[in-house]
Amino acid sequence: MKELKPIEEKWNKKRIVMGLFTLALLIVGLVSLKILVLDKNQANTGSAADNPGSVKGARTSSISPAQNNPEVSAPDLNSTLQNQVNTIQQEISNLNLAEIASSSPQVQKVINDMKTLQNLPRDQAKSACQQICNGL
Questions:
Q1: What total of structural domains would you count in the chain?
Q2: Which of 13, 18, 45, 117 has the most CB atoms around it within 10 Å of its CB?
Q3: pLDDT above 70 for 51
Q4: Which domain holds residue 104?
Q5: 3-state SS record for 14-47
């Protein structure tokens, strides 16, 4: 029987150097990121700790519409809204329900089918009309 020779592994110096270089680059990157990001946050929170009454963020005081836009006052706003409501009511009262119903593509198809039934004999028209109504 043959004796098995132990496999000798050679150290690949090039891979070891590249691995150490990559590890060192990663460590330098993490340290620089820590210095840039975390130190800025600590500096910001440190100034707020010095003055406990101040908080960075959105303003919480309420602003009335009159303060926001001095040109528009509450009575003018109410009259403008009332005019718009009146205009919309007039437009709605002028709508024709037949026009609204006939503008639907499904209703148009039924109307066209019914028009074609006018030329058919009575018994054929009756059966075709039943087919149309069952299809709805």
A1: 2
A2: 117
A3: no
A4: 100-136
A5: HHHHHHHHHHHHHHHHHHHHHHHHHHHHHHHHHH
Q: Which helix (H) or strand (E) holds 100?
A: helix 97-102
Residue 33, domain member (yes or no): yes
Answer whether residue 90 is part of any domain: no
Q: Residue holding tokens 């406990």?
A: 52
Q: Is residue 5 part of a domain?
A: no
In a domain, 73, yes or no: no
Most confident of 63-67, 81-85, 117-121: 81-85
Question: The pTM is what?
Answer: 0.28
**CA 114/CA 107 separation, integer angstroms:** 11
| Percent of the chain as helix, strand, coil, to the nearest 5 | 70, 0, 30
CB 55 within 8 A of CB 48: yes
**Radius of gyration, alpha carbons of the chain:** 41
Confidence of residue 105 (pLDDT cuts 50, 70, 90): confident
**What is the dihedral sign for C-alpha 22, 23, 29, 33?**
positive
Residues 6 or more apart in contact with residue 101 via CB below 8 angstroms: 107
Look up residue 116 and give its two tokens. Answer: 């074609």
